[in-house]
Design a protein that fits this description.
single chain; 215 residues; mainly alpha; Leucine-rich Repeat Variant; 2 domains
């Protein structure tokens, strides 16, 4: 924590708040600095758990860099989703730690069914990063998640709907087969009544059609 305090940038906090990067006791440490510190410290699961429980968003991002994925339990992952105060902490936890654990896929449907905003965001942020990084996962596993995306598309909360949209787009960008499946899912979402569903569908359709256009 002393090292994090030394890297604090209080002058950046107002600007970060404009991008909804909030949370009590936030220090304003830049992500590249957190990554450098994480690399210097090396994996340390016990330290990661203690840093997470500090409640400081910067420390929580560092915790996601230090956690050892094979040691993460379902209870610990659920605990982390309860203590999130900001979308960037959620996404960094998914990118740095959650996607690397064998529990990742089983967490998605549970978190997608949750009411808590950041736990639900975690489901779709995790799905989005898996769509990018889980290169060997069969198409069928991603197609099976489209029903979760469609079910959550009516959630009007900003940080949920953006993650739902992100997951849909990333699935569609994996390959032509998944692009067609994602576009079909977007068409079904577009038929829903909510504003969030229409936005999710329109944005995904626009990007996926552009990605499929010939150069």
């Amino acid at each position: 924590m002393v090292q994090l305090q030394d890297l604090a940038r209080p002058e950046q906090l107002a600007g970060m708040r404009r991008f909804a990067m909030v949370g009590e006791q936030r220090l304003g440490v830049a992500v590249p600095q957190l990554r450098a510190l994480g690399k210097a410290l090396g994996p340390d699961h016990e330290l990661a758990m203690r840093l997470w429980d500090s409640g400081v968003p910067d420390a929580q991002i560092l915790a996601s860099l230090l956690a050892e994925p094979l040691q993460l339990s379902q209870a610990q992952m659920d605990h982390w989703t309860q203590g999130m105060q900001s979308w960037d902490v959620c996404d960094q936890a998914c990118l740095n730690a959650f996607r690397r654990t064998p529990l990742a896929w089983s967490c998605i449907p549970r978190w997608a069914a949750a009411e808590a905003e950041y736990r639900r965001r975690c489901a779709f942020s995790l799905l989005a990063v898996l769509a990018v990084h889980d290169k060997r996962r069969p198409d069928a596993d991603f197609i099976a998640q489209l029903v979760l995306i469609e079910a959550a598309a009516g959630d009007e909360r900003n940080f949920v709907k953006k993650a739902v949209n992100w997951a849909l787009r990333q699935i569609g960008k994996r390959n032509p087969r998944l692009r067609e499946a994602a576009l079909a899912s977007a068409a079904r979402i577009q038929a829903q009544a909510s504003r969030s569903a229409r936005w999710i569908a329109a944005d995904a359709i626009r990007e996926l059609r552009r990605a499929s256009a010939p150069l």
